[in-house]
Amino acid sequence: MVHGTKADVFCPEATAFYNGKVDLGDQISGLYEMLEKVFFRLTRVAAVNSWITYNQLNRKTITFKNFLLAVGEDVVTERKSFKENEEYDRMYHHQMCL
Q1: Residue 59 burial (CB < 10 Å; 0-12/13-18/19+)?
Q2: What is the pLDDT at residue 70?
Q3: In whole angstroms, what is the distance from residue 66 CA to residue 62 CA?
Q4: Contacts for 46-51 with beta carbons within 8 Å, 24 or more apart?
Q5: This prediction's pTM
Q6: C-alpha span between 70 and 60 (Å, rounded)
Q7: Are 73 and 65 in contact (CB under 8 A)?
Q8: What is the 3-state secondary structure (H, E, C) of 3-65?
Q9: Do residues 55 and 62 touch, judged by C-beta distance below 8 A?
Q10: Quick one: 68 exposed, middle or buried, by C-beta within 10 A (0-12, 13-18, 19+)?
Q11: Given pLDDT bands bounded at 50, 70 and 90, which one contains residue 97?
């Protein structure tokens, strides 16, 4: 075969179907990976900006690692207290309606 020429080659239908699905899967996973990178990049930028603002407003220096740990703990405990407050609010409003 001479380079640069094309030749028709037999391809079974199952192989063509499989290769098409693999290509589609690669496209979708590539898009997902890109979106995941963008999401984590934006999250990291927001965390750094929050850390800088925190240090400036409180006039103290906390390491970025400790800041992230504190934020993570606050998110977890705040979620728990939110659920407790939500239950309290429902009971309070129920009593007010009686």
Answers
A1: exposed
A2: 92
A3: 7
A4: 47/71
A5: 0.52
A6: 15
A7: no
A8: CCCCCCCCCCHHHHHHHHHHHHHHHHHHHHHHHHHHHHHHHHHHHHHHHHHHHHHHCCCCCHH
A9: yes
A10: middle
A11: low
Cα–Cα distance list, 17 to 13, 23, 31, 84 (Å): 6, 10, 21, 53
- For residue 38 the two structure tokens come to 């963008």
- For 24, other C-beta atoms within 10 Å of its C-beta total 10
Please report the pLDDT score of residue 21 as a whole number: 72
- CA 69 from centroid of its chain's CA atoms: 18
Q: Read off the pLDDT of residues 22-58 as tens digits, 9 standing for 90 and up.
A: 777 777 787 788 888 999 999 999 999 999 999 999 9
